[in-house]
Amino acid sequence: MPFLLSLDEGTTSARTALYDETGARIAMESNPFPCFYPKQGWVEQDPEEIWRAQLDSARRVLARSGVPPEQITAIGITNQRETTVVWDRRTGKLVSPAIVWQCRRTSDFCTELASSREASDVTRKTGLVIDAYFSGSKVKWILDNVPGARERASAGDLLFGNIDTWLIWKLTGGAVHATDPSNASRTMLMNLESGDWDADLLRLFDIPASMMPRIVPSSAVVGTAKAEHLGAEIPIAGIAGDQQAALFGQACFRPGLSKNTYGTGCFALLHTGATRPVSANRLLATRAASHDASAQFAVEGSVFVAGAAVQWLRDQLGVIRTAAESAEIAASVSSSAGVYFVPAFTGLGAPYWDMSARGTITGLTRGSGSAHIVRAALESIAYQTRDLVEAMEADSGERLRELRVDGGATANDFLMQFQADILGCKIVRPADIETTALGAAYLAGLAVGVWKSTDEVERFWRAERVFEPVIGDTERDSLYAGWKQAVAQCRA
Ligand code: ADP
User: Fold this and answer.
1) Closest-lying ligand 1 atom to the alpha carbon of residue 261
2) How do residues 441-481 score in pLDDT, each as one tens digit?
3) Which domain holds residue 141?
4) How large is the average pLDDT for residues 336-347?
5) Residue 351 φ/ψ region, left for φ over 0, alpha for ψ in the -120 to 50 degree band, beta for the rest
6) Residue 131 falls inside a structural domain
7) Would you say residue 296 lies in a domain?
8) DSSP string covering 384-421, please?
9) Candidates 264, 374, 381: which one to mutate for ligand 1, based on the most atoms within 8 Å of Cβ?
10) Which of 240, 307, 369, 375 is the most buried (most CB within 10 A)?
């Protein structure tokens, strides 16, 4: 019986899941690793620590499941996107800590770039909004600031990778330096349409082409993990950035299908098929993971603070003891009684892209209590998602019929029902909400013939619960109008 090993490398932990040929998850292990905040707005991680955490979780999955490594048909990899690693091609030694996607150290450079002549070219070619979030400015920072790095890069001695590339390089003992289009589309260095590194963009960011990994399909054998790591030589056959892997794991293979992930932040992706989207509403155009070598696209909206607002209620405000308790407390009042909470702790992401906005609670009266604030926090997650969906609908000219959901906060039934109400469409929660790991397993399994087609994989996807809207249009519109006003107050 064939098995697939999925390495799911996130921002806070490295996880490994094992799947059988029916797409069932039979084991999962995880190891947390830390972020470092050496200065205000800076976020770093240690790539060696990530590698150790990832390898250890994979070994533990094999030990716990009892599945011999010879029976693992292929490995799939999915990863936190944009996080930037630079190392020496010969020694494997790191040139600096990894610069994590959340790191704002290159904001000034990006602000300057955004107001330059080249800005419209960058956006047109990459589909991205110019921001420190993406890898390009981070690589440039390392070359400009680490002593000797630029000379070594010019001599061809240094390699760049996101975490997928780093893990593949480690697993193959330095034999393979590769990434896939879904990750490459987040670097601000790839031409979204052609799927190749863009010479003009590399010049603009002053990055030698010799540092760049080869871009290979998301579902294809790219190399072999050495036996010393997992006890057998295993083909690496799937790669995708975490959000695109989740889209794939939700069986959103066709245009018009969409998913929203509710974790620390929210990430909504809408599949647009072979058509490269152009957003007039400040969403990102990105590569979706494809089961074959064809180019597939998606539009993406990212919200920075979603589940993190619930953590804030627990850790800073102290009005809930656990995240799960928020559902019950929110339901203990019949409405938020006009209270709105805009959790713009680190500015606002799509569609506002307002770095200077800060968190705001509006509509407080003498009768407002902590339950109203808890409810408003959960509601803010649904409203922010509606902001993304409105932008997607405006871009595509089509109404969303259903939204597939995943991520930790989808366990909250109150939130899911409110989401259905505020969007006026069905919310579908699948049986397996670990869709990121599942997506990477699907990509690997399709590459090595465990599954013949996406139709076969689609049959594994099962809804656990569907939330239908129960409020009318008038109430929905009035609640949402209140949110828009609160956002305007927050930005003012
Ligand atoms: P990530 O992958 O971003 O670390 P997860 O998908 O593991 O996130 O989800 C964790 C987030 O979801 C946390 O921010 C947490 O506050 C939130 N969360 C978890 N359970 C619930 C719940 N029952 N209700 C609301 N939020 C929740």
Assistant:
1) 6
2) 999 999 999 999 999 999 998 899 999 999 999 999 999 99
3) 3-242
4) 93
5) alpha
6) yes
7) no
8) HHHHHHHHHHHHHS----EEEEESGGGG-HHHHHHHHH
9) 264
10) 240
Looking at residue 41, which CATH number applies to its domain?
3.30.420.40
Q: From atom 8 of ligand 1, which residue's Cα is the shortest distance away?
A: 263
Q: What residue owns the CA closest to ligand 1's atom 1?
A: 263
C-alpha 382/C-alpha 471 separation (Å) is 14
Average of per-residue pLDDT across 57-63: 97
Whole-model pTM: value is 0.91
In a domain, 322, yes or no: no
- Ligand 1 pocket test: pick from 31, 310, 417 the residue with the most ligand atoms within 8 Å of its Cβ: 310
**Which residues have C-beta atoms less than 6 Å from ligand 1?**
10, 12, 263-264, 307-308, 310-311, 323-324, 326, 407-409, 411-412
Length of the chain: 492
Residues in CB range of 195: below 8 A, 6 or more apart:
181, 184, 215, 287, 295
The count of domains in the chain is: 1
Indicate if the alpha-carbon torsion angle 419, 476, 483, 365 is positive or negative: negative
**What is the spatial distance between Cα 218 and Cα 444, in angstroms, rounded to a whole number?**
8
- Rounded to whole angstroms, the Cα distance separating 36 from 34 reads 7
Instruction: Report how far ligand 1's centroid is from the alpha carbon of 11 (Å).
Output: 13
Q: Judge whether 456 lies within some domain.
A: no
Residue 387, CA distances (Å) to 282, 391, 470, 484 in order: 11, 6, 20, 9
